[in-house]
Amino acid sequence: MIPISLPVDLAVCAPKGLSVPLERSQAEDLTRVLKAIADPTRLQLLSLINSEPESKACVCDMAEAVELSQPTISHHLKVLTDAGLLERDRQGTWVWYSLNVDQWSRLQKVLG
Amino acid sequence: MIPISLPVDLAVCAPKGLSVPLERSQAEDLTRVLKAIADPTRLQLLSLINSEPESKACVCDMAEAVELSQPTISHHLKVLTDAGLLERDRQGTWVWYSLNVDQWSRLQKVLG
Lengths: 112, 112
Known about the structure:
3-stranded antiparallel beta sheet, homodimer, about 55% helix
């Protein structure tokens, strides 16, 4: 049983993607990752981070663009981080977020 | 306004994927497609179809594998078809489902 706060390892949960019948537990793990991105606000945040210089952004950068409060944005970023899709890097007062390229690459393979 | 029964055209809704900031309407269209696959039963059905000879299957093939009734499976297949992820081909009594390769390819690009 994987605790909810640990990112899903897609390479383990669905190593052959959709090319072989998925077990229920594999399908549930993959669903966790997909549900994390299946949200318009989270997709907007991902695209904002990805289009920033060096593909990293802090909450302060994002609040204005999506017109949401910083606590709301932080909640959405936590969902994405818990799914392994974002990485956090604290620098002084601010936390910077960047895409976890490995997890995105695995997700692409799973859906390929 | 796109009727709910028309598949989302990912090439139109997010032509540059997550590499530029998504508009809200683009993020909502993309969310519709992602929500369609973010379900363990639907992921299992997709993997079953994809692993069949010629990557096509009918409801009769799938009912036993996922231990669900045919009406329940048909509902899930309709959600996937409405999102443009599956294609239907009626042959006599049965409807055969196959993956819409173009839509999957676009989804991969959007997430790439």
